[in-house]
Design brief:
globular, binds heme C, 29% helix, mainly alpha, Cytochrome Bc1 Complex, Chain D, domain 2, 412 residues, two-stranded antiparallel sheet
Length: 412
């Protein structure tokens, strides 16, 4: 047997995000054995104080992330929407499921994803999933944002900064001016000599600093009860264990089909609760939004080198990781749900009692009519018909919710 280097150490490479993901995918067959032998060895790596060591670039990125002068008007930082108290998700106090922007009365287009575990999101690619023996048709995986439209954290940060519905800066000149006046300007200059002199260079450097912070080890803590359970350091209650069983059972919840879990392995990186694939789940309309933008999801991606703009990918969104899901104030790309139990109940009854979810009387009412036939009606748990018993009963829904609550990392 070949002994692998611990995954956790590979994960520390600065640009290791993609490599780690492919390592996880490539290793999925043999890693259980490899992981088991790592675990048996007393030298197995532990998160130590040194893992918390923060480089100057990471520390700078953190200060930028919390800087509320980087919006127009001032007052909105990255953390206003990506709030540490909500696992770096949140609605910036809007109560609307999607976050408020820096200008009064503005709302962003989609709900805010958690930024924990971002380092594991791979770049967008189409490939045949080794685990999916039923399909030889390449499927999309990865890319940042709900629609996978970016492959680079360092570049995508311009989007919230310049988006009129988010931080509303006029242009990169305005952003560079703010960086020059920031209390961390000296640290910025030390890390990126000369960058502050030219807006393009300044914004590039800002992107690298934020990327360094967002992919640093503390942003992937693996400190939940479930992680302790994987490490054989905690036990699940009977209800949580039943929830995990239903979550994995392909004939019941079937959740793990997309929200990946490998609980036979003590390596928490293998249980990211997303395969980063795309799916049209048919989330209902967010009743709190009066103005609705049509949202076509993955097919909005403009990159012509990938087939992502084909019509078949309209209405598909990237599967979110469910780590820390209980800390989210709203759920789904459009923030339609405010209660975790409702999301699980939606999965259980979407096909059997559609009237409970689509108040307009039209199934999949938040999906443009042209794309409604693309919503998945073939998969467990939503492959039933009106009048059938729900895929999960009330106790089973409660068990899955109890299990999902074990995915919350310890507060720091
Ligand atoms: C007004 C609220 C708001 C602010 C401020 C904001 N974001 Fe976001 N962020 C969002 C929303 C909403 C999305 C999802 C957008 C989408 O998918 O189209 C998002 C997505 C992201 C993503 C992609 C996450 C993933 O899982 O793919 C990253 C990274 C990110 N934001 C970083 C930042 C950084 C860094 C800042 C500060 C420069 C910032 N955001 C400021 C609301 C905000
Ligand atoms: C076929 C793939 C697939 C299956 C099966 C699946 N999900 Fe999902 N899940 C998704 C996708 C894709 C989304 C995002 C949908 C959207 O925003 O429109 C999602 C969203 C969620 C969310 C909201 C998370 C957030 O950050 O907003 C929760 C909670 C969730 N799923 C739980 C479950 C549970 C529990 C099950 C099993 C009963 C399940 N999922 C089965 C793909 C799947």
């Amino acid at each position: 047997m070949r002994v692998r280097r611990p995954l956790r150490m590979r994960a520390r490479n600065r640009y290791g995000t993609r490599r780690l993901k492919s390592a996880v995918l490539a290793a999925s067959g043999s890693v259980l054995v490899a992981a088991a032998c790592l675990w048996a060895s007393p030298a197995a790596p532990q998160e130590t104080a040194s893992a918390e060591h923060v480089s100057a670039r990471t520390a700078l990125g953190r200060r930028i992330f919390f800087d509320a002068t980087l919006s127009e008007p001032h007052g909105t930082s990255c953390a206003s929407c990506h709030d540490p108290a909500h696992a770096y998700a949140g609605d910036h106090g809007s109560g609307a499921g999607v976050p408020a922007g820096s200008r009064p009365g503005t709302l962003a287009r989609r709900s805010t994803p958690s930024l924990y575990y971002l380092r594991y999101v791979p770049a967008l690619s189409f490939h045949v999933d080794e685990d999916d023996r039923r399909s030889h048709d390449p499927q999309p995986y990865g890319g940042y944002f709900w629609d996978g439209r970016s492959d680079s954290i360092a570049e995508l940060v311009r989007q919230p900064l310049l988006n009129a519905r988010e931080m509303n800066n006029r242009d990169i000149v305005q952003i560079a001016d703010k960086l020059r006046r920031a209390p961390y300007a000296r640290a910025f200059e030390a890390e990126f000599p000369g960058a502050l002199d030219a807006p393009e260079e300044a914004v590039k450097a800002l992107g690298l600093a934020l990327e360094s912070f967002l992919t640093s080890p503390p942003m992937a803590p693996f400190t939940s009860k479930f992680d302790d359970y994987l490490r054989r350091q905690a036990t699940l209650t009977a209800q949580e264990a039943e929830g995990l069983r239903l979550f994995k059972d392909p004939r019941r919840g079937n959740c793990a089909d997309c929200h990946t879990v490998r609980d036979a392995s003590p390596v928490p990186e293998l249980s990211l609760f997303s395969d980063y694939g795309y799916e049209a789940v048919g989330a209902p309309r967010n009743a709190r939004l009066h103005v609705r933008d049509e949202d076509r999801g993955l097919c909005e991606r403009t990159d012509t080198t990938k087939p992502s703009s084909e019509t078949r990918w309209c209405a598909s969104f990237r599967t979110p990781s469910l780590r820390n899901v209980a800390l989210r104030p709203s759920f789904m790309h459009n923030g339609a749900f405010t209660n975790l139990r409702d999301v699980v109940r939606f999965y259980a009854t979407r096909s059997t009692n559609p009237e409970q979810w689509y108040r307009s009387g039209v199934p999949f009412d938040d999906t443009a009519e042209a794309y409604r036939s693309l919503v998945n009606t073939a998969k467990v748990p939503y492959n039933r018909h009106p009048g059938d018993p729900p895929a999960l009963n009330d106790d089973e829904i409660d068990a899955i919710v109890a299990f999902l609550r074990t995915l919350t990392d310890r507060p720091r």
